[in-house]
From TrEMBL:
Lineage, top ranks: Bacteria, Pseudomonadati, Gemmatimonadota, Gemmatimonadia, Gemmatimonadales
Gene3D superfamilies: Cyclic phosphodiesterase (3.90.1140.10)
Provenance organism: Gemmatirosa kalamazoonensis
Protein name: Phosphoesterase HXTX
Pfam families: 2_5_RNA_ligase2 (PF13563)
Length: 177
């Protein structure tokens, strides 16, 4: 979400794994760690762009609640950290296929108005976004392993208006069986 304006749909990462990711962010990118909790962006930066900022929260809730109500919690493995698209950004990627892709596609087909996306669907958690990292810092980040699966059990909707902090608009737990 950094550097963007619009409404994003995330799934925040909680528990011990979320704390571990937050600790890595605090060490390598304190600004990122202060902005939002560790998360996976479901829509907004890849696949489809952010929801148009003028969209009323009630319309967003009406479109997303049926999706959340029928989506079970997802437990997914992270892949090895890597640089994102020839940038200095280091991410923990997730497989862009399977249940996460189906969830993304359901949101994309919800009837909400979306801006254009910058990238194809590339779900991930960001470890470092803002700083220019030293070679040693890159090596250390890329060598980290996150073997426990990430549990995604809700979607959270944020409105970003850089440089202002993101504002949480809505949170919907996944209720599917």
């Amino acid at each position: 979400m950094p550097g963007a304006n619009g409404i994003f749909v995330l799934s925040e990462i909680g528990g011990p794994l979320g704390e571990r990711i937050r600790d890595v962010q605090r060490r390598f990118d304190p600004k990122l760690a202060r902005e939002t909790p560790p998360h996976v962006t479901l829509v907004g930066s890849s696949g489809v762009g952010p929801i148009v900022p003028s969209t009323p929260v009630e319309r967003i809730r009406d479109a997303l609640k049926p999706i959340a109500d029928t989506t079970p919690a997802l437990e997914l493995p992270f892949e090895r950290p890597h640089r994102f698209m020839q940038t200095n950004i280091v991410v923990l990627p997730l497989d862009p296929h399977g249940p996460l892709r189906r969830l993304h596609d359901r949101i994309a087909r919800s009837g909400l108005p979306f801006a254009r996306a910058k990238f194809t669907f590339t779900p991930h958690a960001t470890l470092s976004f803002y700083p220019t990292l030293s070679r040693d810092a890159f090596r250390e980040l890329l060598g980290m392993r996150f073997d426990e699966p990430v549990r995604l059990d809700r979607m959270t909707v944020y409105h970003t208006r850089d440089p202002q902090p993101a504002v949480k608009l809505l949170e919907l737990p996944f209720e599917g069986a």
